[in-house]
Amino acid sequence: MNEPFSVPVTVRGYETDVQGHLNQAVYLHYAEHARWALLQAAGISQARLMATGVGPVALETTVRYRRELLAGDEVEVTCAFVWGGGKTFRIEQTIRKTDGTVAAEVTGVGGILDLKERRLVADPSRIFEELATDPGLFGL
Predict the structure, then answer these.
(1) 76-113 per-position pLDDT tens digit
(2) Which residue range is the domain that position 18 belongs to?
(3) Residue 30 lies in a domain
(4) Contact between 96 and 8 (Cβ < 8 Å)
């Protein structure tokens, strides 16, 4: 199995709370950043999605906070798509410090929305395969 796609992020001071920890909502920002970076690396831009009339949607997100992150910490944020049948897919993400410590695990359920019909498309993996220049980044 290949390593999941990942992006580096440095925790910025303004992202921390009064205890000096990374604010809980910022973990979601890091996960979103990694998801869009994966789409871009695979050749799928927001403009291309809009021109095609579809867009990714988050249907459910769960965050498991494991260890604190502080300003200046360097992390890698992974992103792996898990395909099943039907209209949805899972996204598994890990936010890991450079020493290997897992700071958080983010799991989500997503879909591809037909922007005209306002309904999920039946086979989201097909959309990614058709639009991506490198569908292998999605495990396809």
Answers:
(1) 999 999 998 899 999 999 999 999 999 999 999 999 99
(2) 5-135
(3) yes
(4) no
Structural domain includes residue 140 = no
The CATH number that applies at residue 66 is 3.10.129.10
pTM for this one? 0.94
For the range 50-57, what are the long-range contacts, defined as Cβ-Cβ under 8 Å and sequence gap of 24 or more? 50/115, 52/127, 52/131, 53/114, 53/115, 53/116, 54/112, 54/113, 54/114, 54/115, 54/121, 54/127, 55/112, 55/113, 55/115, 56/110, 56/111, 56/112, 56/113, 57/110, 57/111, 57/112, 57/113, 57/120
Tally of structural domains, the chain: 1
Q: What is the pLDDT of residues 59-71, one digit of tens each?
A: 999 999 999 999 9
